Amino acid sequence: MTDRRVVVFPSSAELGPALAELVSSRAEKVLGQGGSRFSLGLSGGSLVSMLSKELPALPNLDCSRWLVGFCDERVVPFDDPESTYGLYKSQLFPKLNIPKEHILAINHSLPVEECAEDYAHKLKQTFPDDQIPMFDMLLLGMGPDGHTCSLFPDHPILQETMKTVAPISDSPKPPPCRVTMTFPVVNAARCVVFVSTGGSKAPVLKQVLEGGVTPALPAACVSPSQGELLWLVDEPAAAALTLSVERPGPGAKL
Protein backbone atom coordinates (compact mmCIF):
# COMPACT_ATOMS: atom_id res chain seq x y z
CA MET A 1 0.00 0.00 0.00
CA THR A 2 1.50 3.30 -1.07
CA ASP A 3 1.96 5.85 1.68
CA ARG A 4 0.17 8.91 0.22
CA ARG A 5 0.32 12.35 1.78
CA VAL A 6 -1.52 15.45 0.56
CA VAL A 7 0.13 18.63 1.82
CA VAL A 8 -1.55 22.00 1.26
CA PHE A 9 0.28 25.33 1.31
CA PRO A 10 -1.30 28.79 1.32
CA SER A 11 0.26 29.60 -2.05
CA SER A 12 3.03 28.56 -4.42
CA ALA A 13 5.27 31.10 -2.67
CA GLU A 14 5.29 28.85 0.41
CA LEU A 15 5.23 25.61 -1.55
CA GLY A 16 8.40 26.32 -3.56
CA PRO A 17 10.86 26.58 -0.65
CA ALA A 18 9.31 23.50 0.99
CA LEU A 19 9.78 21.51 -2.22
CA ALA A 20 13.42 22.57 -2.50
CA GLU A 21 14.05 21.65 1.13
CA LEU A 22 12.37 18.27 0.59
CA VAL A 23 14.57 17.47 -2.42
CA SER A 24 17.70 18.53 -0.55
CA SER A 25 16.84 16.60 2.62
CA ARG A 26 16.05 13.43 0.67
CA ALA A 27 19.34 13.73 -1.19
CA GLU A 28 21.20 14.09 2.09
CA LYS A 29 19.37 11.06 3.49
CA VAL A 30 20.17 8.84 0.49
CA LEU A 31 23.83 9.87 0.45
CA GLY A 32 24.11 9.74 4.23
CA GLN A 33 22.87 6.15 4.25
CA GLY A 34 25.71 5.06 2.00
CA GLY A 35 24.26 5.72 -1.41
CA SER A 36 26.81 6.58 -4.10
CA ARG A 37 24.44 9.07 -5.71
CA PHE A 38 20.99 10.66 -5.48
CA SER A 39 18.88 10.04 -8.59
CA LEU A 40 16.25 12.67 -9.41
CA GLY A 41 13.75 12.72 -12.27
CA LEU A 42 12.55 16.15 -13.39
CA SER A 43 9.42 17.31 -15.19
CA GLY A 44 8.75 20.55 -17.04
CA GLY A 45 6.02 23.15 -16.75
CA SER A 46 5.91 25.36 -13.66
CA LEU A 47 8.42 23.10 -11.88
CA VAL A 48 11.24 24.61 -13.98
CA SER A 49 10.86 28.14 -12.65
CA MET A 50 10.04 26.96 -9.12
CA LEU A 51 13.12 24.76 -8.81
CA SER A 52 15.35 27.27 -10.58
CA LYS A 53 14.42 29.87 -7.98
CA GLU A 54 14.34 27.80 -4.83
CA LEU A 55 17.06 25.13 -5.12
CA PRO A 56 19.96 27.58 -5.63
CA ALA A 57 18.66 29.61 -2.67
CA LEU A 58 19.39 26.75 -0.27
CA PRO A 59 22.60 27.30 1.70
CA ASN A 60 25.54 24.95 1.12
CA LEU A 61 23.70 22.79 -1.41
CA ASP A 62 26.10 20.22 -2.86
CA CYS A 63 24.78 18.46 -5.97
CA SER A 64 28.05 16.86 -7.03
CA ARG A 65 26.64 13.37 -6.44
CA TRP A 66 23.24 13.99 -7.96
CA LEU A 67 22.10 12.18 -11.09
CA VAL A 68 19.34 13.90 -13.05
CA GLY A 69 17.02 12.39 -15.63
CA PHE A 70 13.75 13.54 -17.19
CA CYS A 71 10.34 12.00 -16.64
CA ASP A 72 9.39 12.96 -20.16
CA GLU A 73 10.77 15.14 -22.92
CA ARG A 74 9.64 16.79 -26.11
CA VAL A 75 11.64 15.68 -29.15
CA VAL A 76 12.74 19.15 -30.20
CA PRO A 77 16.15 20.87 -30.33
CA PHE A 78 17.46 21.98 -26.96
CA ASP A 79 17.23 25.64 -27.94
CA ASP A 80 13.50 25.25 -28.63
CA PRO A 81 11.37 26.80 -25.84
CA GLU A 82 9.45 23.49 -25.68
CA SER A 83 12.58 21.57 -24.62
CA THR A 84 12.43 20.71 -20.92
CA TYR A 85 16.15 19.97 -20.82
CA GLY A 86 16.82 23.26 -22.60
CA LEU A 87 14.86 25.22 -19.98
CA TYR A 88 16.69 23.59 -17.07
CA LYS A 89 20.01 24.01 -18.89
CA SER A 90 19.48 27.76 -19.14
CA GLN A 91 17.68 28.40 -15.83
CA LEU A 92 18.87 25.87 -13.23
CA PHE A 93 21.88 23.77 -14.10
CA PRO A 94 24.38 26.68 -14.29
CA LYS A 95 23.49 27.50 -10.66
CA LEU A 96 24.18 23.98 -9.33
CA ASN A 97 27.30 21.81 -9.30
CA ILE A 98 25.75 18.78 -11.00
CA PRO A 99 28.42 17.21 -13.22
CA LYS A 100 27.41 17.45 -16.86
CA GLU A 101 27.89 13.71 -17.32
CA HIS A 102 25.33 13.14 -14.54
CA ILE A 103 22.53 14.76 -16.58
CA LEU A 104 20.71 12.31 -18.86
CA ALA A 105 19.32 14.11 -21.90
CA ILE A 106 17.65 12.67 -24.98
CA ASN A 107 19.22 12.63 -28.43
CA HIS A 108 16.71 14.91 -30.13
CA SER A 109 18.24 14.33 -33.58
CA LEU A 110 16.83 10.78 -33.67
CA PRO A 111 13.34 9.82 -34.89
CA VAL A 112 10.96 9.54 -31.95
CA GLU A 113 10.97 5.72 -31.77
CA GLU A 114 14.78 5.57 -31.85
CA CYS A 115 14.97 8.48 -29.42
CA ALA A 116 12.91 6.51 -26.89
CA GLU A 117 15.04 3.38 -27.38
CA ASP A 118 18.22 5.43 -26.97
CA TYR A 119 16.98 7.02 -23.75
CA ALA A 120 15.87 3.65 -22.40
CA HIS A 121 19.39 2.37 -23.13
CA LYS A 122 20.88 5.31 -21.21
CA LEU A 123 18.68 4.47 -18.23
CA LYS A 124 19.71 0.81 -18.42
CA GLN A 125 23.39 1.80 -18.42
CA THR A 126 22.81 4.17 -15.52
CA PHE A 127 20.81 1.66 -13.44
CA PRO A 128 22.57 -1.58 -14.45
CA ASP A 129 21.49 -3.51 -11.35
CA ASP A 130 17.79 -2.65 -11.62
CA GLN A 131 15.38 -4.62 -13.79
CA ILE A 132 13.34 -1.39 -13.85
CA PRO A 133 15.24 1.89 -13.26
CA MET A 134 14.57 2.91 -9.65
CA PHE A 135 14.91 6.65 -9.07
CA ASP A 136 15.24 7.99 -5.55
CA MET A 137 12.78 10.77 -6.37
CA LEU A 138 10.58 11.80 -9.28
CA LEU A 139 9.04 15.27 -9.48
CA LEU A 140 5.80 15.28 -11.47
CA GLY A 141 3.24 17.81 -12.60
CA MET A 142 -0.33 17.29 -13.73
CA GLY A 143 -2.21 18.78 -16.65
CA PRO A 144 -5.84 19.96 -16.51
CA ASP A 145 -6.82 16.73 -18.27
CA GLY A 146 -5.17 14.63 -15.54
CA HIS A 147 -2.10 13.67 -17.59
CA THR A 148 1.33 13.36 -16.03
CA CYS A 149 4.68 12.87 -17.74
CA SER A 150 3.45 12.43 -21.33
CA LEU A 151 0.92 9.83 -20.24
CA PHE A 152 -2.37 11.15 -21.58
CA PRO A 153 -5.92 9.92 -20.88
CA ASP A 154 -7.13 7.05 -23.07
CA HIS A 155 -3.76 6.71 -24.82
CA PRO A 156 -2.55 3.13 -25.54
CA ILE A 157 0.75 3.94 -23.86
CA LEU A 158 -1.02 3.76 -20.49
CA GLN A 159 -1.12 -0.02 -20.92
CA GLU A 160 2.64 -0.34 -21.55
CA THR A 161 4.23 -2.87 -19.21
CA MET A 162 7.48 -3.85 -20.97
CA LYS A 163 9.13 -0.65 -22.15
CA THR A 164 10.72 1.73 -19.64
CA VAL A 165 10.63 4.65 -22.06
CA ALA A 166 7.97 4.91 -24.73
CA PRO A 167 7.65 7.10 -27.83
CA ILE A 168 4.63 9.25 -28.61
CA SER A 169 4.14 10.68 -32.08
CA ASP A 170 0.53 11.77 -31.61
CA SER A 171 0.52 13.75 -28.37
CA PRO A 172 -2.82 15.54 -27.92
CA LYS A 173 -0.81 18.44 -26.57
CA PRO A 174 1.84 19.94 -28.87
CA PRO A 175 4.56 19.24 -29.75
CA PRO A 176 3.33 15.84 -31.00
CA CYS A 177 6.62 13.90 -30.69
CA ARG A 178 7.69 13.05 -27.15
CA VAL A 179 9.32 10.33 -25.12
CA THR A 180 8.08 9.45 -21.66
CA MET A 181 8.78 7.21 -18.72
CA THR A 182 6.12 4.52 -18.48
CA PHE A 183 4.14 3.56 -15.38
CA PRO A 184 6.53 0.68 -14.51
CA VAL A 185 9.36 3.22 -14.04
CA VAL A 186 7.23 5.86 -12.34
CA ASN A 187 5.82 3.34 -9.88
CA ALA A 188 9.24 1.85 -9.15
CA ALA A 189 10.52 5.14 -7.69
CA ARG A 190 11.32 5.35 -4.00
CA CYS A 191 9.51 8.68 -3.74
CA VAL A 192 7.16 10.46 -6.14
CA VAL A 193 6.25 14.10 -5.56
CA PHE A 194 3.43 15.77 -7.46
CA VAL A 195 3.29 19.55 -7.52
CA SER A 196 -0.04 21.11 -8.50
CA THR A 197 -0.95 24.77 -8.10
CA GLY A 198 -3.69 27.15 -9.16
CA GLY A 199 -7.46 27.14 -9.11
CA SER A 200 -7.67 25.71 -12.63
CA LYS A 201 -6.38 22.40 -11.25
CA ALA A 202 -9.03 22.12 -8.51
CA PRO A 203 -11.62 20.03 -10.43
CA VAL A 204 -9.14 17.49 -11.81
CA LEU A 205 -7.23 17.30 -8.52
CA LYS A 206 -10.45 16.27 -6.80
CA GLN A 207 -11.06 13.59 -9.45
CA VAL A 208 -7.52 12.24 -9.13
CA LEU A 209 -7.34 12.20 -5.34
CA GLU A 210 -10.94 11.30 -4.48
CA GLY A 211 -11.84 9.06 -7.41
CA GLY A 212 -15.16 8.80 -9.17
CA VAL A 213 -13.72 8.82 -12.70
CA THR A 214 -13.66 5.65 -14.82
CA PRO A 215 -11.21 4.84 -16.22
CA ALA A 216 -8.89 6.46 -13.70
CA LEU A 217 -6.98 9.48 -14.96
CA PRO A 218 -3.25 8.91 -15.58
CA ALA A 219 -2.15 10.92 -12.52
CA ALA A 220 -4.39 8.71 -10.37
CA CYS A 221 -2.52 5.62 -11.61
CA VAL A 222 0.73 6.77 -10.00
CA SER A 223 1.18 4.58 -6.94
CA PRO A 224 4.79 3.63 -6.13
CA SER A 225 4.78 -0.03 -5.21
CA GLN A 226 7.42 0.31 -2.50
CA GLY A 227 7.73 4.05 -2.10
CA GLU A 228 6.13 7.26 -0.93
CA LEU A 229 3.66 9.45 -2.80
CA LEU A 230 3.41 13.13 -1.89
CA TRP A 231 1.07 15.70 -3.36
CA LEU A 232 2.20 19.27 -2.71
CA VAL A 233 -0.59 21.67 -3.65
CA ASP A 234 -1.66 25.22 -2.90
CA GLU A 235 -4.99 26.30 -1.44
CA PRO A 236 -6.54 27.27 -4.81
CA ALA A 237 -5.79 23.81 -6.24
CA ALA A 238 -7.10 22.15 -3.06
CA ALA A 239 -10.34 24.18 -2.96
CA ALA A 240 -12.63 21.29 -3.95
CA LEU A 241 -11.03 18.57 -1.81
CA THR A 242 -12.97 16.94 1.00
CA LEU A 243 -10.33 14.38 2.04
CA SER A 244 -8.05 14.87 5.01
CA VAL A 245 -4.95 16.93 4.19
CA GLU A 246 -1.88 18.26 5.98
CA ARG A 247 -1.37 22.00 6.38
CA PRO A 248 2.16 22.47 7.76
CA GLY A 249 3.08 25.60 9.64
CA PRO A 250 5.73 28.03 8.40
CA GLY A 251 9.15 26.40 8.14
CA ALA A 252 7.83 22.90 8.85
CA LYS A 253 9.81 19.99 7.44
CA LEU A 254 8.12 17.52 5.11
Automatic annotation (TrEMBL):
<comment type="pathway">
    <text>Carbohydrate degradation; pentose phosphate pathway; D-ribulose 5-phosphate from D-glucose 6-phosphate (oxidative stage): step 2/3.</text>
</comment>
<comment type="similarity">
    <text>Belongs to the glucosamine/galactosamine-6-phosphate isomerase family. 6-phosphogluconolactonase subfamily.</text>
</comment>
<dbReference type="Pfam" id="PF01182">
    <property type="entry name" value="Glucosamine_iso"/>
</dbReference>
<protein>
    <recommendedName>
        <fullName>6-phosphogluconolactonase</fullName>
        <ecNumber>3.1.1.31</ecNumber>
    </recommendedName>
</protein>
<dbReference type="InterPro" id="IPR037171">
    <property type="entry name" value="NagB/RpiA_transferase-like"/>
</dbReference>
<dbReference type="InterPro" id="IPR006148">
    <property type="entry name" value="Glc/Gal-6P_isomerase"/>
</dbReference>
<feature type="domain" description="Glucosamine/galactosamine-6-phosphate isomerase">
    <location>
        <begin position="11"/>
        <end position="231"/>
    </location>
</feature>
<dbReference type="GO" id="GO:0017057">
    <property type="term" value="F:6-phosphogluconolactonase activity"/>
</dbReference>
<dbReference type="GO" id="GO:0006098">
    <property type="term" value="P:pentose-phosphate shunt"/>
</dbReference>
<dbReference type="InterPro" id="IPR039104">
    <property type="entry name" value="6PGL"/>
</dbReference>
<comment type="function">
    <text>Hydrolysis of 6-phosphogluconolactone to 6-phosphogluconate.</text>
</comment>
<dbReference type="GO" id="GO:0005975">
    <property type="term" value="P:carbohydrate metabolic process"/>
</dbReference>
<dbReference type="InterPro" id="IPR005900">
    <property type="entry name" value="6-phosphogluconolactonase_DevB"/>
</dbReference>
<keyword id="KW-0378">Hydrolase</keyword>
